[in-house]
Structures are given as C-alpha cells and as structure tokens.
Amino acid sequence: MFKNKKPKHLRLGTRGEVLAAELILSFNIEIITKNYRTNGGEIDIIAWDGKQLIFIEVKTRKNDHFLNNPADAVGFHKKQRLKSSALQFMRTHNLNHLCFRFDVIAISFKQWKLIDVRWIKSFFKSSDLTRNEGIFEYE
Predict the structure, then answer these.
(1) What gap in Å lies between CA 110 and CA 75, rounded to an integer?
(2) Residue 74: which CATH number?
(3) 50: left (phi > 0), else alpha (psi -120 to 50), else beta?
(4) Please, which of 58, 62, 75, 90 could form a disulfide with 95 given CB 3.0 to 4.6 Å?
(5) Does residue 139 belong to any structural domain of this protein?
(6) What pLDDT, in 10s, does the model give residues 40-96?
(7) CA neighbor of 23 nearest in space, from 117, 111, 113
C-alpha cells in the first residue's frame, strides 16, 4: 500500500550499513556510534576493539556499478574528510591519547542479492594525508 519513499541508492547504503554493523558485532567489537556527523563530513561507524578506535567507512555498491570494488570510491578527498571528522571526534571526547585506524567495509550486491563483503583494515593512515603531531595510529 505504501511505497518506500527512500531512493534506491539510499536503501542500498542503509542495507550495507546494517550488514557492516552485524559483521563488526560478530567479532565482539563494540560500536560506539553510527553516522557521526561533523561540519567536515560523516563517519559511518566508530568502534572500539579494546585496543584502539576504529573509524569505519562503509561502501555499498551494486555489482553493475562502474567500480568493481566499492572501496575504490574512497578517494583522497573522502579520506581527508574522514580524518578531519575522526580528529574532531577524538578532541571532543578527550581521546587524543588513543591509538586508532581507518577501515573500509566494502559490500557488493547484484540485483539486491549480497555477493561480497570485504573488511579492509587499516585502509589508509592519516599520515599519508598530512603530518599529525601527538596523534598515534596503530600499525
């Protein structure tokens, strides 16, 4: 009777974020928050594995998309926005002393059927973008 008003690409992204959260929880990793927004951008999932903060970008694509690997969509500017948002989160919560990393969970569907999930840990280092003094990344 009622149609879902959300555009298909947003429904696909939401579905991917739900699957990513389930994956993270299956490894007994605590999800601190989802969809953390700042003026500079958004972090899909922020998690804690007992040793470090994990800032996770979830990329969900249909297999017929022009990119074979959804993680390929995380370019230099997106990495900069993730880094900026992560540093703001850490400053706001007085967590500058903690180690952290940036991960990507890449999810592929074909005709709404799940075909691939990849969790790419330490996808990039903030030091690859600019120099950070007093910020520690786990390697």
Answers:
(1) 23
(2) 3.40.1350.10
(3) left
(4) 90
(5) no
(6) 889 999 999 998 999 999 988 776 555 567 667 777 888 888 888 999 999 999 998
(7) 117
